[in-house]
Amino acid sequence: MKNGKAVVLIVEDSPLIRMSAVDLVLSAGYEALEAGDADEAIRILETRDDIDLVFTDVQMPGTMDGIKLSHYIRDRWPPVKLIVASGAAIVEESMLPVGSRFFPKPYDDLTITEAMARLLASDAPKARSL
After folding, report:
1. d(CA 58, CA 85)
2. What pairs with residue 53 in β-bridges?
3. Is residue 127 in some structural domain?
């Protein structure tokens, strides 16, 4: 957390969807950071130690998709909470790391902000669920 606000990193290759997600995060009272792909997200995570949650798309250009990114984050930064979203990919619960939440696109803003609040309020990763 930074200045008492949770910091959320949004990883989304579509600029319009990313802008909408940033607005959603800001309106929920969190600080928003942006990355256009997994490689950029990793660079940000390597330079900041205050990121509480990563909200990532599945299908993105670059060296890894959102599922691989979520596993990489869970392995390297275990305390970081994870929300994964996709409009095209079929994501099964077993594909995600423990503590992740998956939502199909288009997602409901209230559902996402409630999931963020629940994850950020927890101290330990929760069981996976759709």
Report:
1. 6
2. 8, 81
3. no
Whole-model pTM: value is 0.91
Q: CA torsion sign, 39 to 53 to 12 to 19?
A: negative
Residue 22 belongs to domain with CATH number: 3.40.50.2300
SS (H, E, C) 32-84: EEEECCHHHHHHHHHHCCCCCEEEEECCCCCCCCHHHHHHHHHHHCCCCEEEE
Number of domains observed in the structure of the chain: 1
Q: What are 124's two structure tokens?
A: 């330990």
Is 62 in contact with 35 (CB distance < 8 Å)? no
Helix axes of 15-27 and 109-121: crossing angle, nearest 10 degrees = 60
The tokens 């997200």 sit on which residue? 41
Residue-range definition of the domain harbouring residue 75 = 7-121
pLDDT tens readout for residues 28-86? 999 999 999 999 999 999 999 999 999 999 999 999 999 999 999 999 999 999 999 99
Sign of the torsion formed by the C-alpha atoms of 117, 69, 41 and 61: negative
- From residue 52, alpha-carbon distances to 11, 41, 91, 94 in Å are 14, 13, 23, 23
